[in-house]
């Protein structure tokens, strides 16, 4: 298939673009490089530099079989300070993309949604039936896009899948996390291992979890890329399917720090700080639906393996 990957110069998009090439697809990346890197676009993909909202129509006019839509703003704190940036950058941009797809007869889409659409879960593991009550504008904008996709699929026959990722981590084949503003735990802990941060702050150790620190579900980026290939192949016209993607196993902040110490062999100072307001104690996905309907099973489930791949990527100072 000829595929457009929006945000393919970013972390998840670049790994997925590489996996799509491996699977034999032809890939064009559309990315404005606002948080991505031109050198992350895998060899063999054509890069068009520009904003999805402005250039999707002109690019899709070439003729495409599908779109994988990763391009987004995705910083929770920034979305609370400056929600307009998120409603414009995420929702308006995505609606423009959907309209361009309609105009040019592109019928498949796989969308990067997020666990943030669920907010504070009533129970874990979190299934796709859980109430969607996002607690920040980032999650709210992703949920709004999910709703837009549902109605476009129903009315215009789009074959659509939203993948709600939990915490993406690890690296693949020289492609990994290089966020200028890093908010993800594993790269932060690895920055401390490299001496780029004095210490790691643990946001509370009195949560109702086995060791008192928050528990999160880390999915290896390579496993995530596999899910995109399956979602694309199994999508059906007129249907919008939604899948939660996680490891199924949660790891606590302390377990992640310990894994980083083991893998790097370095001293990583850590200090307990205040709880962060609105943090759920445990966020773990049920990926049963993805397993049953897509035949997707995460292969890289051990935290040590996820950390080892992330460490190999940053150790050579690529970060
Ligand atoms: N990384 C995670 O743990 C995680 C978890 C859940 C969901 N997601 C979602 O996955 C997607 C990718 O996340 P990531 O971590 O790779 O982020 P990233 O910032 O590395 O990648 C996003 C890419 O999109 C590009 N971009 C942003 N707005 C654009 C626009 N209007 N036009 C063109 N390009 C644009 C950026 O330059 C960047 O290359 C996002 O949609 C994010 O919400 C990520």
TrEMBL record:
Give a yes or no for keyword Cytoplasm in this entry: no
Any one Pfam family match given in the protein's UniProt record, by short name: Epimerase
UniProt keyword terms in alphabetical order: Carbohydrate metabolism, Isomerase, NAD
Instruction: Name the family.
Output: Belongs to the NAD(P)-dependent epimerase/dehydratase family.
Q: Name one GO molecular function term.
A: UDP-glucose 4-epimerase activity
Alphabetized InterPro entries for the sequence? Epimerase_deHydtase, NAD(P)-bd_dom_sf, UDP_G4E
Q: Which GO terms describe its biological process?
A: galactose catabolic process via UDP-galactose, Leloir pathway
Q: Does the keyword Signal apply?
A: no
Which species is listed as the source?
Answer: Actinopolyspora xinjiangensis
| Enzyme Commission number(s) | 5.1.3.2
Catalytic function, reaction form: UDP-alpha-D-glucose = UDP-alpha-D-galactose
* Assembly information from the UniProt record: Homodimer.
Which pathway does UniProt place it in?
Carbohydrate metabolism; galactose metabolism
The UniProt record lists the NAD-dependent epimerase/dehydratase domain at 4-246
**Cofactor entry:** NAD(+)
* CDD domains linked to this entry: UDP_G4E_1_SDR_e
The protein, known as: UDP-glucose 4-epimerase
